[in-house]
Amino acid sequence: MLSTFRELIKDEVPPTQEDFINTFKAKYPDLKLRGIVSRLKRAYLSYVREYHLGYLLKKHFKKVIYDEKVDISGVDYVIYYRGIKFNIHAYVNTENGKYWREVKNGRHKFRGEHLDIPMDLDRGKRCGKFILYTDDNIKKLKNEMKKIIYAKQPGKVDKNGS
Question: The domain containing residue 58 runs over which residues?
Answer without folding.
Answer: 2-152
